[in-house]
Task: structure prediction
Amino acid sequence: MAEEIRAEMVASVWKVVAATGVNLAAGDTVVILESMKMEIPVLCEGPGIVVELAVTEGDVVQEGDLIAVLADAQAQVSSST
Result:
């Protein structure tokens, strides 16, 4: 099952930390947003593989905008065997 990571506020994408295909653990930083001169890390809630990054550095996101999609790491292993 895929996990969609969405923006919780209006902000600028200051830095994209993760990359497509990277395996992330729960709590890893996906991107860092900037709002009102504060840096806000966006973390993944569970482990997974980044299958889509919907933002690039400098983009402005609105509340609810898609940032990234993570696939379940176990599902990826099962489908490749």
The mean pLDDT is 92. DSSP finds one helix and eight strands in the chain. The first strand starts at residue 3 and ends at 6. Strands lie at 3-6, 11-16, 23-24, 29-35, 38-43, 48-53, 60-61, 66-71.
